[in-house]
Specification:
mainly alpha; single chain; about 0% strand; about 150 residues; globular
Amino acid sequence: MNLFIIKCICVYFSGIGFGLIVNLPHRALNVAGITATLSWLVYYGVMNTWGGLGSANFFGGLTIGLVSVVIAHLKKMPSILFDVPGLVPLVPGGQAYNTIKNFALGDYQVAFNYLSEVVWIAGSIALGFIVAELINKIRIKIKYVSKGWDK
């Protein structure tokens, strides 16, 4: 349990740290850390229940997309400010490093295995963002129609 809390704190600070690197406004830093933590918690939960890299990253990306739109609306800031730091815990940096390392060492079979993981993870995150955007568009359309503005 203590290790899990330490992981959550580290993910939170990774979101804030990346927000500082990309020069986020200071009033967005805390929320960026929270977005990163929420996306990682969803990833961690799905990974430990279903066990799939693709589904865990998909739901993590979906969480980032949905949460960042809501927070951006509340804070009156662009949602991209919360998208990018939220991605930090999901980025397949270790697999990408192992891909390059194994290509350099000439172990092409292992390198292509890692490369397929990188592509699978990146595609899953991107698909999560796409679905979040579709959900947001549908939500806006329903709100638009319910107010009678579609005439």
